[in-house]
Amino acid sequence: MTRPHRSTAARPTAARRGRDRRARVILPPPGAPRVDGERRPSTAVVGGGIAGLAAATALAERGVAVTLYEARPYLGGRVGGRPVKLKDGTPATMSRGFHAFFRQYYNLRGLLRRTDPALDRLTPLPDYPLRHSDGLHDSFRHVPRTPPWSALAFAALSPSFPLRDLPRIDAAAALPLLDVRVPEVYERLDAVSAHDFLDAVRFPASARHLAFEVFSRSFFADPRLLSAAEMALMFHIYFLGSSEGLLFDVPNAPFPTALWEPLAALLARHGADLRTSTPVEHVEPLDDGGYAVATDRDERRHDTVVLALDAAGLRALVDRSGRLGDTPWRERVARLRNAPPFLVSRLWLDRPVAPDRPGFLGTSGYGTLDNVSVLERYEDEAARWAARTGGSVVELHAYALPPEASWEVEQKRLLEQLHRIYPETRRAGIVDARHEWATDCPLFPVGGYQDRPTVRTPDPGLTVAGDLVRTSLPVALMERAATTGFLAANALLERWGVRGQPLWTVPDRGRSAVLRGLAGAVGRRR
Length: 526
Known about the structure:
By secondary structure, the protein is an alpha+beta fold. It is 32% helix and 19% strand. The protein is built from 16 helices and 23 strands. The chain starts with a strand and ends with a helix. The N terminus is likely disordered.
């Protein structure tokens, strides 16, 4: 991928707009503001999730003729939603479940600001509470945002860090968390699982379950399967390397209404052709340097292509497109793995949960249940339904389920755990229930970093984007999707001499020079 261009300009203005004062800006190569000439270059963006929408937006804004292909009938990918009708006749929206829009998601938020400059369609949740089945509770509401005070205050305030256990922690083994750099963190920790890394650090068991494994499972993976490098990067982004804190925003309306329908309208105004319900069958390089993109309806020629697909979709399309890339690249794509299945259950209940229940609760020790959301606390559609019926809309998540798990059994187990956590729901009748079971999230396995594709490919006119993509920037999850979407667009715009999208990230290394030096010295000795 293109080497990031560092800004030499001062950054206080950005900090005053709410970014971490140490946030890093990556400027694209200089160029024209838009494409010139009578013939506009064309790009096919395959995939209408966050990555595809970011790429399509950056390209269309600069005059590129964009055709976006999406297999589903809606945009947003894993953050999309579809209309349903409840058993009581109410129209509603079913999605793939809760997503937290952290303040560190500079590039995703920049994408959303295209249609919502003040981000009025996002609303903050007052806390990020965590609860363990043994009765321990944790919260990030009163934790300072700036490291290292954030980590010290969390340890001091958290009941999951008993003082008697703190001397057992292997501080030297934990030092890599204090100086996370990309790609160096993968060179140091990618061969170790998150589970084994936590073993080596010897964190107290309660802290490990409540404060670490809850986060690692947000990657839809059991800690035994997840690369310790990915977990360390996550802690740098969300906690130890950023002063944005761990509180977050959520959309105040269903995802299509709040996020993607306005962006689709913007893309249409820029002349983009949005082809939903249109899966791509194969992509064929042409002798003139372009690409033929074939669907079950037609075949169109495009100058360039962005593949913004999930791991399974990318593997399948590359397998069907025999001339894309070279042999080593195709073999690496073929080795990409999917995370274990996850389940989202949304329940429309005929009576409310207790008024003090939070909008979101992370859980540990409750079987396969990973979190509970009460949607009427923040989403207008659910709030209207709850106000009209006197009920509640509750959502349950189970990440990293066994592949052989039974859907029906897991749905019942989630309901049982909801009754344990919120006992008042035992008396509630279920007006309707909808379930999403999927296996399309990327797995970041031990030793898998080198197999992940980069934005650039062996084909100059072909780029890849998505949360599975390997990049030298400290980003993850939805922010990685948005960032790589912009990077894919920038790589193509550079071909045409057009200036791309500036990007922001959290600091690209630990915040303390002393701790960085100590971590480096211990790492070299080990």
